[in-house]
Structures are given as structure tokens and as C-alpha cells.
Design goal:
Layout: E1 5-7, E2 12-15, E3 25-28, E4 43-50, E5 53-58, E6 63-67, E7 73-77, E8 92-97, E9 103-107, E10 111-116, E11 121-125, E12 140-145, E13 151-155, E14 160-164, E15 169-172, E16 186-191, E17 197-201, E18 206-209, E19 217-218, E20 227-232, E21 238-242, E22 245-249, E23 257-258, H1 278-293
Length: about 290
């Protein structure tokens, strides 16, 4: 029961779970006069928390939980300094549902939290005050649950981090000495079937770390340097949405290739869904564009 998710210039749009029809497109927009409207017009993260539940993370309005099938608001979740179980900050950047069904919430200035979507309680993962500043993570920008169950995070200006689940602390991802990503802003993360870790950056395209390699490696062929989304399809091809178009790294190839007909289309962080064919990527782009025009 998967929904096709997309972000608009204002608000968010999605197709009902298991639907491919534009007639089943739902949109949620802000309206200051309506308590059941979107709490903030700038939606920066979207995730399907449960079969019939979508979480929308906003830049200043916390999280909006909506019904995936009828588009109606279920709840606003906001930061409350007087509550230990509230959001740490109302600017939400990444959202991740892990294999256990927990929702992970990263915020801009509030670090990392996680909670159960059934009761919507959140718990903080504390930054470690005794470690150097580079090992802390106030601003989480991307999250990924790897095949081995570990969680890695992309930061704003501090590269890639890893979460120590046992201690509840955030630590630097150990590398072999390459400092290229140490101060990078990581916008998206992905992992291939072979265990290769991929990182899309704001400044320098896509980097990858294959199993057994000593450090991060650069890639070639992207239409733009800012990479907003990385996504593997079921064939093992990697798709990259950049600020200048869409590209694909075919399984077994050595570089990205720009997808004909979509170069120049500006793609944002949740602009396309899981793709098995080029047509599905194009359809996902049209869903977002349809939502923007509606």
C-alpha cells in the first residue's frame, strides 16, 4: 500500500496508496483561517508512516499527519518546550520510517528524534557534549537505514554521520582520510544492493563508498552539482534528481547519464517515487507538475 509522494511549490501532493490515476491525487495547502489546513506552506519532507497515514514535515510548522486516502488532516505535531515528548524544533527536514515501523525525525537546530507513529510520541537522541563539534548533529538533513540495520545521517556542513543506537549518540562516519565530505552538506543518501553507500551533496554532486574501499569516491556525468534525491529502482539502477535534471547510474556502468526529455526539470527532494521503468519516473514528475497546476 505505497503512495506516490511529491512536494509542490506550496504544500504537498500524493496519489492514494496503490493508485496510478491522477483522479486520486490529493493536495494539502496552508490556510491561516482553517485549523484543519496545512500548518506551513513550505513542506520539505514527506513520508508514508503507515498504510493510510502520511507525515508532512514543514519549515516552521512542525509535522502534519494526514490521511493518505482522503487527504484530511489527522493531527498537527508541534514543538512544545514544556514537554519532553514533543518535537525539539518546528523546522523538520528529513523523515524516515525504519523497518521496525518507527519514524525518525530530523530537525534544523533540534537534532534527531524518533517515535512510534501509532502513539506519535518522540524521543531524543542526544548529541554528545564531550566530543568535538564535528561529531555533533544539530541539523540533520538526510537519513538512511542501511541493510545491516544501522542508520547514517547527512548533516548541513558536517558531512555524513552514523547513529550509535546503543548509546543514543551521533558519531562521525569513519573514513580513510579523504576530507572532501567533512564539511559538505548532504542532501540525500542511498545504499546499493552490493552495500555501496551513496551521498548526494549540495555542492559537489554524488560521492560513493563501495565495500572494501578506503574512502569516498567521486562520480561523473551528472547534469548538476546539487543533488536533491537519490533512489534505487528494483533493477539496481540509481536515479539522481538534481537542480538541472534527472540522471541514472545504470547497474555496472561507470558514470551517470542524463535522462532525455527531463534535463532542465528542477527536481526536489521527494519528487519521484520508486521506479522500475523510465516511464514511471516521467509519470512521477507529471504528478508533481499536475499538483502544482491544480
Amino acid at each position: 500500500t505505497c503512495a506516490t509522494l511529491g512536494l509542490l511549490r506550496e504544500g504537498a501532493a500524493w496519489l492514494e496508496p496503490d493508485s496510478a490515476s491522477p483522479q486520486q491525487l490529493h493536495r494539502l495547502l496552508p490556510d491561516p483561517a482553517n485549523a484543519n489546513a496545512l500548518s506551513h506552506g513550505w513542506v520539505v519532507a514527506i513520508a508514508q508512516a503507515q498504510a493510510d497515514q502520511i507525515w508532512l514535515g514543514t519549515a516552521g510548522g512542525g509535522i502534519n499527519i494526514v490521511n493518505a486516502r482522503d487527504g484530511k488532516l489527522i493531527q498537527h505535531v508541534r514543538a512544545n518546550p514544556g514537554s519532553n515528548s514533543s518535537l525539539a524544533h518546528d523546522t523538520i527536514v528529513p523523515l524516515l520510517r525504519d523497518r521496525a515501523g518507527l519514524m525518525w525525525v530530523g530537525s534544523w537546530g533540534g537534532g534527531l528524534q524518533h517515535g512510534n507513529p501509532q502513539n506519535r510520541m518522540v524521543r531524543a537522541f542526544w548529541r554528545n557534549p564531550v566530543r568535538p563539534p564535528g561529531s555533533n548533529l544539530q541539523d540533520a538533513r538526510a537519513m538512511l537505514e542501511r541493510r545491516d540495520g544501522s542508520i547514517v545521517l547527512g548533516s548541513i556542513g558536517n558531512g555524513v554521520k552514523q547513529l550509535d543506537l546503543a548509546s543514543g549518540t551521533i558519531l562521525p562516519l569513519r573514513s580513510g582520510g579523504n576530507q572532501a565530505l567533512q564539511n559538505a552538506t548532504i542532501l540525500t543518501l542511498a545504499e546499493g544492493a552490493d552495500g555501496t553507500l551513496w551521498a548526494g551533496t549540495k555542492e559537489s554532486g554524488v560521492w560513493r563508498w563501495p565495500p572494501g574501499a578506503a574512502d569516498w569516491q567521486t562520480t561523473r556525468g551528472l547534469p548538476g552539482h546539487q543533488v536533491n534525491k537519490l533512489l534505487f529502482d528494483r533493477r539496481g539502477d540509481l536515479w539522481a534528481a538534481t537542480g538541472s535534471g534527472v540522471a541514472r547510474w545504470r547497474r555496472g556502468s561507470g558514470q551517470f547519464e542524463t535522462l532525455d526529455g527531463l534535463d532542465g526539470n528542477r527536481m526536489w527532494a521527494a519528487s519521484f517515487a520508486l521506479a522500475e521503468e523510465e516511464a514511471l519516473v516521467r509519470d512521477a514528475v507529471q504528478v508533481v507538475e499536475l499538483g502544482a497546476r491544480a
